[in-house]
Structure formats: structure tokens, C-alpha cells
Amino acid sequence: PYLGFLLGYGGGLAAVTIPFVAARKLRKAEAGWKPKNRHAAKVFAMLDTHPFRSVLVLRLILWFNPPLSYALAFSRVSLRTYVSACAVALLPVVVVAVAATSWLADV
Question: How far is CA 52 from the centre of its chain?
Fold first, then answer.
């Protein structure tokens, strides 16, 4: 379980960071994309005032969703804020996944 946690957590962070960095490198201009869902739009509107909290909430809901990484790459969120919020948000997800799969292996 410990190796599975380390690999899952490290791989998960890489899976959300690599698309973010790639989209940041490829973007040409600041895009004004806004989500259509009113709840998602409210969280995206908070990106300027509370970037860590916004990324944390979005990652807690959408876990490893690559389109979220691309959308956040076009925002003003810094790489450090993005990675640290993702690291905090994905920790319980990976812990539960590893605990559930190690429990299943014992059955």
C-alpha cells in the first residue's frame, strides 16, 4: 500500500501538472473562457481573489480531470499555487483509493 500510495500520488500530481504546464506554454493570448454552469462560474470567478481555495474546490470535485487543467492554465493562477492546491486536494482521493484497493486485495 505504501508503494501504491507513492506511485498513485506522484503519478496523479504529474497527471494534473503536465497538461497545465503544456497548455501554459502553448497559449497565445489570455482567453476569456467562462463556464456555463452557474456554480462552476462562481468558483472560476473566485480565481482572482482566492486562487488556492478555488483550485482546491475544483480539484476536490473534478479530481484528475484534464480539461480542468487546461482551463486553469488560461487563468492567472500561478504554477506554485496550482500545484500546491492540487497536492492538498488529491491527497485524500489517493489515500481512499489505495485503502480501498488494498482492502479488496485482502478479500
Answer: 11
What is the biggest distance separating any 2 CA atoms in the chain, rounded to whole angstroms?
A: 53
CB atoms within 10 A of CB 71: 21
**Which pLDDT tens digit goes with each residue over 61-95?**
888 888 889 888 888 899 999 999 999 999 998 99
pTM of the model: 0.80
State the DSSP code for 63.
T
Residues 6+ apart with CB under 8 A from 9: 90, 91, 94
Helices (H), the chain: 2-26, 38-45, 51-62, 66-73, 79-106
Contact in structure between 89 and 60 (CB atoms under 8 Å): yes
